[in-house]
Amino acid sequence: MFDDKKVIFSGMQATGNLTLGNYLGALKNWVKLADEYMTFYCVVDLHSITIRQDPAEFRKRARNLLALYIAAGLDPEKNCIYYQSHNPDHAELGWILDCYTYVGELQRMTQYKDKAAKHADNINAGLLTYPSLMAADILLFQTEYVPVGVDQKQHLELARNLAERFNAIYGDTFVVPDIWLGKTGRKIMSLQEPDKKMSKSDENPNASIYLMDDADTIRRKFKRAVTDSVGVVRYCEEQPGVSNLIDIYCACTDKTTEECEKEFAGLGYGQFKEAVGEAVVGVLQPLHDRFEEIIKDKDYLDKVILENADKSYYYAEKTMRKVRKKIGFPERPRRS
Ligand code: TYM
Question: For residue range 306-317, what is the model confidence (pLDDT) as tens digits?
Answer without folding.
Answer: 999 999 999 999
